[in-house]
Structure formats: C-alpha cells, structure tokens
Write a structure and sequence with these properties.
The chain is an all-alpha fold. Helices cover 88% and strands 0% of the residues. Helix 1 packs antiparallel against helix 4 and helix 3 runs antiparallel to helix 4. The two termini are 17 Å apart.
C-alpha cells in the first residue's frame, strides 16, 4: 500500500538525487502517480515539479524540491498513522 511503498520510493529517489542520476525522473513520476491516486495533491505537485527539474537538469531546484517532498512524506506518514488508530 501507499504508506509502505512511499518510503521505499523516496529512499530510492534520494540515492538517485545524490548521484545526480537520471533515474530520479522515474522515481519522481512514481511518487507523483501514487500520491495523486490517494489525493495527496501537495506531494503529487512537488513530485511533478521534481520530475520537470530532472528533465531540464536543474539539480539545485531538484535538491529543494526533494527536501519539500521528504517533509510532505513525513506529514502524510504521520497523518496515516494517526488515522489508523
């Protein structure tokens, strides 16, 4: 499910970002789709912007967007944990 897979995708994206690897685009696309499917529009938007930044090679922008994605991912994770209880 989303709550279990998202941290894995984000971790993979972080490795790609640190390596300035083009596979970051695929990870961003995956985050965007998964987020949109559950209605996490802020995360989906951030991932879409990250996807664009990777295509154009704007790595400083990608760094900032990824930081925002990590924060939003934690916010969603916390929400889901509270919602389950």
């Amino acid at each position: 499910m989303f709550a279990e897979s998202l941290p894995v995708i984000v971790a993979r994206a972080k490795v790609s970002l640190n390596e300035r690897n083009a596979t970051l685009n695929a990870a961003a696309h995956e985050i965007k789709g998964a987020s949109a499917n559950i209605g996490a529009s802020t995360l989906a938007h951030l991932a879409a912007e990250l996807e664009k930044a990777t295509v154009t090679g704007h790595w400083p922008e990608a760094d900032g967007l990824f930081s925002a994605i990590e924060i939003e991912t934690q916010r969603i994770k916390t929400f889901i944990q509270h919602w389950k209880h």
